[in-house]
Each structure stands twice: as C-alpha cells, then as structure tokens.
Amino acid sequence: MEKLNLRQQKGLETKNRLIDSALKVFSAKGFDASTTKDIAKEAGTTDGLIYHYFKSKEELLWAVVDKHSLIPSLRDAADQTDPDVPLESLLTKYFGQLLHRLNEKTDLIVMFFGEAQRKPQIREYLVSLIEEGLKPLYFLLKDRTALNEEELRLAVRNIQTAMVMYFLLYDRFTRNEETRESYIHTTVQQFLKILG
Amino acid sequence: MEKLNLRQQKGLETKNRLIDSALKVFSAKGFDASTTKDIAKEAGTTDGLIYHYFKSKEELLWAVVDKHSLIPSLRDAADQTDPDVPLESLLTKYFGQLLHRLNEKTDLIVMFFGEAQRKPQIREYLVSLIEEGLKPLYFLLKDRTALNEEELRLAVRNIQTAMVMYFLLYDRFTRNEETRESYIHTTVQQFLKILG
Amino acid sequence: MEKLNLRQQKGLETKNRLIDSALKVFSAKGFDASTTKDIAKEAGTTDGLIYHYFKSKEELLWAVVDKHSLIPSLRDAADQTDPDVPLESLLTKYFGQLLHRLNEKTDLIVMFFGEAQRKPQIREYLVSLIEEGLKPLYFLLKDRTALNEEELRLAVRNIQTAMVMYFLLYDRFTRNEETRESYIHTTVQQFLKILG
Amino acid sequence: MEKLNLRQQKGLETKNRLIDSALKVFSAKGFDASTTKDIAKEAGTTDGLIYHYFKSKEELLWAVVDKHSLIPSLRDAADQTDPDVPLESLLTKYFGQLLHRLNEKTDLIVMFFGEAQRKPQIREYLVSLIEEGLKPLYFLLKDRTALNEEELRLAVRNIQTAMVMYFLLYDRFTRNEETRESYIHTTVQQFLKILG
DNA sequence: TATGAATGAGGTTTCATTCAT
DNA sequence: AATGAATGAAACCTCATTCAT
C-alpha cells in the first residue's frame, strides 16, 4: 500500500472531513444556498483549503456523491435477509432494513431529491440508484410469485418508491418506531396480495 | 367588487405575469439559483418592479404558492370520474387524470419537491397537499372495498405517492402515452388485488 | 437623437467615468494588477457597478480600447500639416505633432505596450494601429521622394517606430521641449537623406 | 572557491531551474498573472520551495533579471563582426546578428517590455540596456562616417530601436528568414545614406 | 406603474506565503 | 533540500434590494 507520512495522512483526513461536512451542509441548505465558508467552518478549516482538494464547489458535490454511494447500503438491506423464511417475515425484515438504511443516509437522500429536480446528472444518478435499489428485492421475489417479470418489476418499483416517499415526507420527521412498524406491517400485507 | 381603472388593471396583469414567471424560473433553477433579473426578464419587465409588488423574493415565492394551489386540480381529477362505472375503468380513468394534471403542473410540483427538503413551510404545504390529494380517491373507494379505513388510507397513499414518484422521475421526461398507459394498466390491476 | 432622461444621462456619465478611470489604472499598474475596486474608487463608485455596465473586467478593457482609439489622433497629426511647404518643415511639424499626440495619449499607449506582449488581440490592434499610423506620413511623402513604394513604406515605419520608442523610453519622462526639438531636428535631417 | 557537496549542488541546480522557469512563465503571462505554482510546475518542483530560495515572488523576478543579462549577448553581436569589410556587409551582418540574438532572448525581452511600463527599476534597466546595446555599433561606425558624435549616436539609436520594435511586433511572430533578410537589406541601404 | 442606476454584502475562487514534516 | 497542507487576504463577480426619476 501507499505510504503516507503523518502530514499527508492528516491531509487526507481533512479532505474527508470536508466531504462529510459538505454533505451535511448541502442536505441542510441545498447546494446553492450552501457557502464554501459554511462547509469549511463545519470541517474546522478555511474556505481556501477546499480549493486545494477540489477544483470547485461543484466538484466537491461530486466527491460527496462518490464517497457516499447509496448502492452498497441498499444491497446490504437484501443481503441481510434470509431467503428461506416465509415471504411475510422476509418482506417485513427487508422493508425494515430499507427504512433503517434510508434513515442512516438521510442527509444524502435529502440532498439528492433536492438537487435532482434541476441537475440532470444528479437525477440520472438518482434514477440509476433506484433501479439498482430495486434489484435486491426483485431477485428475492422472482421465484416466489405468480407475477411475470414485467409485473413484478413494476410492483417492486411502486412499493419501493412509495416507501422512499413515506420516508421523505413522514418517517424521517417522526422517527417513531411504532408508527413505522405499523406502516410496514400493513404495507406488507397489501403487497403480499399483489404477489399472489 | 372594486372597479379597477385601466392602469390598475395593467398593474394586476403585470403582477400575475411576475408570479407565473417566478414559477417557471423557480422550478427550472431552484429558488436560490433564480435571480430577480431572471424572473423579471421572463415577465418582460425589470427587476426593480418586483419590489413594487412584493416585499422580497421570498414573498414572491409564497405568492406563487398561493396562486398556483394544486388542490383544485387534484380534486378535479376525481370529479371528472363517474362513480357508477366498474372499479377498473374508474381507477384507470382516475390515474390517467392524475398523471395528466401532474403534467399540467409540472413546474409547480418540481419546485415543491425541490424546496420542500429545506423549507419546512413548503414541506408542510406539500404534505397537506398530498393528504388533500388522497381524499378524492379515498372517497371514491371507501364503499367499494373490503379494506378498513386505516388500510384503505395507506393503500391510497402508497399508490398515489408511487405515482407521483413515477411522474417525477420518469413520466415527465418521456411523456410517452403508450408507456404511461401500460404503467397505469398494470398498476391498476395490482391495486385491485389490494382492494380485494 | 435618443432622448435620455436625467437618470440615464447620469448613468452614461458614470459609464464613461468608469472607462476613463480604467484607462488610468490599467496604464499605471497593468491590467492584471489593477483591481476592480481600484477602478471603481477612481471613478467614485463601487466595484459592483462595473458589472452593471460591463460583463467583465476584460470587457471593460475593450471598452477602453474602443473609446480611446488612437487612430483619429494620429490622423490629425498629418491633417494639420500643409503639403505645400518644404519637406523639412513639413516633417518637423509632423513629428512634432506626433510626439505631442503621443504625449496626450500616454496612458493608453503605455497600456497598449504593456499588454500587447501577452494579449494577442491587443497586439494585433497595436500592429493595425501602427500600420494605420504610417499612412498619413506615407501619403504626405509618396510624391516627393525618389524611393519606391516598398522602400518608402519601410523608411516610414522605421522612423516612426523609432519615434514611438523614443517617446516610450525617454520623452515621456523628461518632457523637455528643447531635447525633443533637437531630437526631431536631427532625425529629420537624417530622414531627408533617406528620402533623397 | 567553496566546494559544494552533492546536496548543495543539486540545490543550486534547482534554484537555477526555478529562475529559468520563472523567466519563461513571466514572459508568457506577465509577472502579475504568473503564479508561483505555474513557475514551480515548469521547474518540476512545488511552490513552497520557491520560498526556500527567494524571499518573495518579486525577488525571484530580480534574480531572473540578474541571471539573464542581455548585455553580453548584445556585445557579441558586434564582436563577431569583422571591422575590415565594407560597411554594407558589416551592417548587414551586424543587424542579422542583432535579430538573431533578440530571437534567442525573446522571453527576456518580452518580459522586459511588458514590465518596464510600470516597474521603474525594470525600465531603467531596459534603458541602460539599450544604451549599452548602442555602443558596439557606435564604435564600429564612428571612424567610418561623416556624422559627428551626436548625430551618429542618434542615428544608431533610431535604427536600433526601430529594429527592436520590428522584432517585437513582427519578426518574432513570423520568424520568416526571407522577410527578415529583405527588411535588413533595405534598412541597411537607407542607413548607409544617413552615414553618408 | 415602471425603469434601471446604484449600493453593499457576500459568494466563489485564487494565490502568495508559511510551516510542519 | 523538498513537499504540500494550511492560511488568510483579496480578487472578480453576483445579486437582492433601494430609490430617484
């Protein structure tokens, strides 16, 4: 591996701190309303340093996107689900995991939805993210349903986007365990009917 | 009513033009990245005039929200749906209307979702909008399903938020009639299973 | 003509003041070392206003070039010279006028020579300026010399560029009438030999 | 002399490389628009190192001036000219050498003319350079002309500054041998008339 | 009502310079 | 000797807002 001396190591930490701070600030205020000073302050440095590590504020945004990719997180939600259990508990567990992961990545997701409406690159990334996010559930279900491929794909997309919306507009503000469980329970029941 | 002389009338027109232009620009660039000059140009006037009609750029945003309420539009989607027809065609028609209305109000909706993540007032409005938007479908269905109130409410919310998401991420970019109809068709089929 | 109200007239004055101030500052410090604040201060306004009238600092530079064109000034130097007088006094008068004009436009010329070495557009303008500047003397002489066209052109260019150099490196710092007259006198004597 | 160990030797090389790189960059962009990073990159090091060898960017400029004196180069132009040959070929050869030397030192000369207009120290150096540069030709000619000292001095200055101007504005961009030879030829013919 | 000149605060970005390693 | 992380001042530029006309 590369040898980094102490100085360089500290530099790398600073760079990472800048990315993390940027995520926090961007998601709180939106990209445009976030100032480089905000971000630097959050990271405990000065704004000039941002330009030592990134070409522009925009590039910092992309560094945030790169570092905090959601996809691994989404895949985990499925991996941690045992495929031998009954569908109902499988789905309950999966959706529980999903909302859990979304909550862990609240900042990032909020930022994505805020910027996606105007930055096409972000929107494309978001769409690919969702497509990617559908796969785990799709593969979990494709051998256990009467729906054909097309139908299953749509069912999975609908249920999952509905859940993201639920997260964005309700769950992340209440963070109430009971409400969430009840929501998941009922949603699973109804989803099972679709799967047949 | 007060009678407006010619000058006042022209003024009112200008004010309305400013609001409409603001909607267009806000939805295209986001509130923060929109400049008063952008808006004025779009309206065919000069930026100074904005401050004759509105206290600030922020106030102009609220004027946009006030003027372009989505609720009537959503209600229409249900009103134009005859309650005596079979559920399937009723839902097909309703969802068709819904996507149609969303497309008509693309600018507004995009703006709402862009700003809702950071302006709490906008988020609250968006939530209330969605709650309001659920009512027509809820009332259309409540006497024709085996689901209890709670279940129906959730089912309606899930299906409808899924559809808004579909609109935001896909439909508004493709605007392909066939794809949309196919989407609606399959979604309705699956929704019918939930309604039982 | 266009009607300008008082406000617009004042605005035009401000714009012109900005251009003149820019010339002063650019020629004193060079383009790169001149700050927009410097220029604004010199003009008695604030730097923001520069961008009301000009797209960028660079565009302000071009506005300076446009407004303070040297060519009319150069042409005048010849126009004021009566073609019926003996060559010697004609040349003496012409060169006197030339140095006089150069002194009047010191700022501009110094700026040109400073920037021409790196801004190709400025260099081209400078070259065209010099070519243009040669014409009056050329037309004054072409019927009164044994030189052919080619030779005369070169003679005129050499003598005139030498004079500009003299101005740039000596005359503009001493501004001593006697020295200048003596320089002109001897130069004319030698130039007459060339003309034959 | 002091003996330099390997490390010191390498250091000296680096310092020289920095000076040469600075010359290149300064002449290309001008002093103000040149960054320490530019210079360091050109030299294959990092900007911090400049401050190990020089107090400031300005001091580096003076180091450039010190190292790259033009005077020896100018003197060479005369030294390589045999005084026994006819004036015409002598002058032809001398001016050929002069343009050749100027081309060799393009960077330096361009930098001088760019900065001379605002840095008085540079201007003084440039003037002294020109005065110095006139001497070789003056001494070459003083016994072979009817002109008195004063007249010869002026003739030499005029012809030589004209030639520098020719170099700055034309020759260095075209670098066309034929054009240059033709220019020199005609110029020499005319200069001979002055010398009488 | 409408214009657009003017302001001033503040944003992104650049850069000479310092300094720990 | 050499690196490059870090600083902080200042540059260019943007823009909401005010206001005289």
Automatic annotation (TrEMBL), chains A, B, C, D:
Keyword rRNA-binding: no
Assigned keywords, A-Z: DNA-binding
DNA-binding region: 35-54
MF (Gene Ontology): DNA-binding transcription factor activity; transcription cis-regulatory region binding
Pfam families noted in UniProt: TetR_N (PF00440)
Record domain HTH tetR-type: where: 12-72
Top-level taxonomic group: Bacteria
PANTHER family, A to Z: HTH-TYPE TRANSCRIPTIONAL REGULATOR PKSA, HTH-TYPE TRANSCRIPTIONAL REGULATOR RUTR
Protein name: TetR/AcrR family transcriptional regulator
